[in-house]
Amino acid sequence: MARPRLLPDNFTLALVATVTVASLLPCQGTVAVAFGWITNLAIGLLFFLHGAKLSRQAIIAGATHWRLHLLVFASTFILFPILGLVLKPLLSPLVTPDLYLGMLYLCALPATVQSSIAFTSLARGNIPAAVCSASASSLIGIFLTPLLVQLLLGVHGDTGVSTLDAIGKITLQLLVPFIAGQVLRRAIGDWVDRHKPVLRYVDQGSILLVVYTAFSAAVIQGLWHQVPVSALAGLVVACCLLLSIALFATTQLSRRLGFDKADEITIVFCGSKKSLATGVPMAQVLFASGSIGVILLPLMLFHQIQLMVCAVLAQRYAQRQNRQATAQTAQSR
Fold first, then answer.
1. Residue 160's pLDDT is what?
2. Res 9: pLDDT
3. pTM over 0.90
4. pLDDT in tens, 162-202
5. Contact 128/63 with Cβ under 8 angstroms?
6. Distance of CA 292 to CAs 98, 102, 106, 282, 323, Å?
7. How confident is the model at residue 268 (pLDDT cuts 50, 70, 90)?
8. What's the sign of the alpha-carbon dihedral 147, 227, 32, 40?
9. What gap in Å lies between CA 141 and CA 80, rounded to an integer?
10. Is 280 helix (H, G, I), strand (E, B) or coil?
């Protein structure tokens, strides 16, 4: 039986199911701690396998792709803050003043690392460049985001502990497994190349785990009760508009600047996302405890929307790449 054309792909359906389960049965307490550990292990395994898969030459090429990294950083730390200020007259009437402060805080954050690389992998983009760009964005953001927050919101804070914790987390969770995979590439690289579907399942599984744990935490913190329904609806519109502009801008800029399709995919997925993992600990330092929940609500909602939208976008990129590969194979025959 043929699959209905209007039916989303299995991964998108899995994402919808994951969000539904997290809304109805959010993990909490010891279960949440266990899921957190499982998620971290899955992400570590993902980067270990990517480290074992990528050749040293590919990593060096990704790290030295300065034009791509410059465009990603400009989107993350220049385009987003400008959009936050320029769109204020249009979007602030849709939400409460505190929620729009959260929107400005969202615009100052670095790019997310795990999902950016996972979606780039699913879409068959430039993975080495994504690893370097997303990781560098997160590390630079640890220092740059507090300065942007101070400029956008006038908030001051001591970020010393948060900075050290974030650097340690990024190093242990991402760089150490990646380096370990590189070290063991000679021993397991051929096995990884022969079992590429395993890497795909790890990609998708890690994203589903991040969605479930992040959305569970948001639901438990009162995602559906902290603001009026009208303000929540307005916040959804504001987040969707912000993401749409970022996706459109990164796509068009990458094409006009002459990047190939693999680089375009990396720029789109690394330059349009914001990090929940970095945003939460920073908010605990930069804002008063009573206002953290509302400040973080736009980030939590934007995080879920970007995962859902980018999952669909990654599948479309992958399908387009498959069609092109099939056409090239047919022509060569």
1. 45
2. 64
3. no
4. 455 655 666 677 678 878 888 888 888 778 777 777 677 77
5. yes
6. 10, 9, 13, 10, 46
7. very high
8. negative
9. 13
10. helix
- pLDDT of 301 over the 70 cut: yes
Distance, CA of 282 to CA of 293 (rounded, Å)? 13
- The phi, psi pair for 222, rounded to 5°, reads 95, 35
| Residue 2 pLDDT level (bands cut at 50, 70, 90) | low
List, in order of start, the domains of the chain with CATH numbers.
27-321 (1.20.1530.20)
Contact predicate 130/280, CB 8 Å: no
Q: Measuring CA to CA, how many Å separate 315 from each of 95, 308, 320? A: 32, 11, 9
CB 65 within 8 A of CB 127: no
Residue-wise DSSP of 284-322: HHHS-GGGHHHHHHHHHHHHHHHHHHHHHHHHHHHHHHH
- Crossing angle, helix 97-108 and helix 292-332, to 10 degrees? 50
Q: Which two tokens mark 54?
A: 């990528």
- Angstrom distance (rounded) from CA 76 to CA 145: 10
Tokens representing 234? 């307005």
Distances (CA, A) of 176 to 57, 64, 169: 19, 20, 10
CA distances from 296 to 15, 115, 138, 301, 330 (A): 22, 19, 18, 9, 51
N residues, the chain:
333
Report percent pLDDT > 90 for the chain: 25
DSSP 272: S
Tokens in use for 122? 């699913």
User: Residue 199 corresponds to which tokens in the numbers above?
Assistant: 């890497």
Residue 158 has pLDDT above 50, yes or no: no
Rounded to an integer, what distance in angstroms lies between the CA atom of residue 208 and that of residue 114? Answer: 12
Q: Report the candidate in 44, 47, 48 with the shortest Cα–Cα distance to residue 36.
A: 44
| Half-sphere exposure of residue 14: CA atoms within 13 angstroms, side-chain side | 13
Q: What angle do CA 299, 100, 245 make, to 5 degrees?
A: 65
